[in-house]
Write a structure and sequence with these properties.
This protein has a two-stranded antiparallel ribbon. It has a two-stranded antiparallel sheet with strand order 3-4. It has 2 domains: about 30 residues, no CATH class; about 70 residues, Membrane-bound Lytic Murein Transglycosylase D, Chain A (Roll), CATH 3.10.350.10. The chain has about 100 residues and is of the alpha+beta class. It contains 3 helices and 4 strands.
Length: about 100
């Protein structure tokens, strides 16, 4: 089940046949949002002690469940490995609405 606001919402589901012959379903690859997709004024945030991506989203008035868009824009593969002082680009609600 894919929940509303999930990074996989809207990603097509592909039916396949598993090795055991039973039908299975997989998600196609999703398209990541990049810095080139940001059309609003760029906002930069410097990571502070104790920050997490959902907390940072909240600081900018964004839904915390969309933390993964900040990760995508900043090419973060490990959201638990933020560095104090690391500068992040924060998309606006307009940029989020496109996803």
């Amino acid at each position: 089940m894919i929940f509303p606001g999930s990074r996989y919402e809207g990603v097509p589901i592909v039916p396949v046949q598993a090795k055991n012959g039973r039908p299975a379903k997989y998600l196609e690859m999703r398209e990541r949002i990049t810095q080139d997709d940001i059309e609003s004024d760029v906002r930069i945030y410097s990571v502070e002690n104790g920050d997490t991506l959902d907390l940072i989203a909240s600081k900018f008035g964004l839904p915390t469940r969309l933390w993964w868009l900040i990760a995508d824009v900043n090419d973060i593969t490990d959201p638990f490995n933020l560095t104090i002082g690391q500068e992040l680009i924060i998309p606006s609600t307009t940029d989020f609405a496109k996803r």
